[in-house]
Amino acid sequence: MRNLFFALFLPCPIYLVSAQTSDSIPQVDVVDIIIREFKINLKEKPRNERKIYFSVFPTQSGAGGGGRAIVTSFNAAFYLGEPATTTISTVYFFPYITFSGKYGFTIRPSLWLSENKGNFTGDYRILNYPQYTWGLGTNTDQGARSTIQTDYFRFYQSALIGLTPAWALGIGYMLDHHYNIDEEASDVAHLDDYYDVLPTQTTTSGISFPIVYNTRVNPINPQGGTYFLLNYRVNTTWLGSDDNSQSLYVDGRKYFSFARLRESILGIRSFYWTVTSGRTPYLDLPSIGYDPGLVPAGRGIEKGRYRSTAILYFESEYRFGISANGLFGAVVFTNITAPARIDTQKFPDWHPAAGAGLRLKFNKYSRTNIAFDVGFSKEFINVYLNIGEAF
Questions:
Q1: What is the pLDDT of residues 55-101, one digit of tens each?
Q2: The Cα angle at residue 101 between residues 104 and 188, in degrees rounded to 5
Q3: Any residues with CB less than 8 A from the CB of 378 and at least 6 apart, and which?
Q4: DSSP 8-state assignment for residue 63
Q5: Which helix (H) or strand (E) element contains residue 209?
Q6: Is 310's pLDDT higher than 80?
Q7: What is the pLDDT of residues 206-236, one digit of tens each?
């Protein structure tokens, strides 16, 4: 273990090479180092001949309501067609347990058929932890925070048919069920303000209609391309929803590669999330950190800090390599969140955040990184440890 520590974190010539070295330098990842240090024999099946690339990494993450959780991130990446014409498929699994005894797990598959003729995505969650809320609106008071205890079950499933190699159109089902809801006693009671009769459980259930444009070959760590998602959701009482309501989620991402600079990528992301009609349960309203993305948006903004009937979000991140062998990299990022005034499309207050981070290449074949970021805003600072990129 001592040798492994030095191999990973000291700038020895075996693993860290000057950025001025030729591009012909073999790429190195954490798995290579583990194989070398522990003298693991892979002659029967070399890594580059394997069809599935696994990444496993224990992380520490903030659970809702300020609780700390031990999280293990599992990622499996594989191709269901020729890599040149098929987006890589992924399956993420995030089990966690908090120091207060709460637990949960999330499974996020995204399967791309050969030549992107179809895409099947899911988001399945059973969560048992509290979350903070500051009420609704554009510029809520930091001191107006309360804690909502809740258990949560999510089932999202969609199937898309590829119209072209880039465009896909589909249909899905989306269920959000919160139960054992209880807002802890404090000077504020946001749930009481929102509901005439305080519920102990809420259900939002409906059909979704996603449209996707995707030219990214590798969504785990895009080196270029574009991603666009438009998802319209229709919740109805005949599917078990508490009320009839509709919502719209639009997410766009663009990646620019600078060929003259090694591992140099500029990523830009923006999303718009809004309730278009009807009444949505409080915990299902658009809220920063609770967007449908794989990694919640808003690094530097406390999760759930802004909640409203609509949210605008913009983010940019510059990613660059540090070592020529690809083992180490870094990022700098900035983002801005704009919640709307309740039941309007007016966004008078904009809340910026920024930060920086380091990257450690875990798997060079799937391009999966271990991401260590620090994000901050005028009210908050936090450390983020993930497997994979923010977007």
A1: 777 665 545 555 556 667 888 889 998 888 888 899 999 888 776 66
A2: 85
A3: none
A4: P
A5: strand 201-214
A6: yes
A7: 999 999 999 998 898 998 999 999 999 999 9
Where is 191: in which H helix or E strand?
helix 190-194
Q: What sign results for the dihedral spanned by CA atoms 224, 77, 231, 354?
A: negative
Contacts 24+ apart (CB under 8 A), 91-95: 92/294, 92/388, 95/71
Integer Cα distance of 212 and 189 in angstroms: 39
Could you tell me if 116 and 147 are in contact, meaning their C-beta atoms sit under 8 angstroms apart?
A: no
Q: What residues contact 81, with CB distance under 8 A and at least 6 apart?
A: 112, 113, 114, 115, 116
Residue of 214, 375, 202, 359 lying closest to 296 (CA atoms): 375
Q: Where are the domains of the chain?
A: 2-387
Of the candidate CATH numbers 2.40.50.580, 3.40.630.30, 2.40.160.50, 3.30.470.20, the domain formed by 2-387 belongs to: 2.40.160.50
Encoded amino acid at 20, one letter: Q
For residue range 164-185, list pLDDT tens digits in order: 989 999 999 999 999 999 998 7
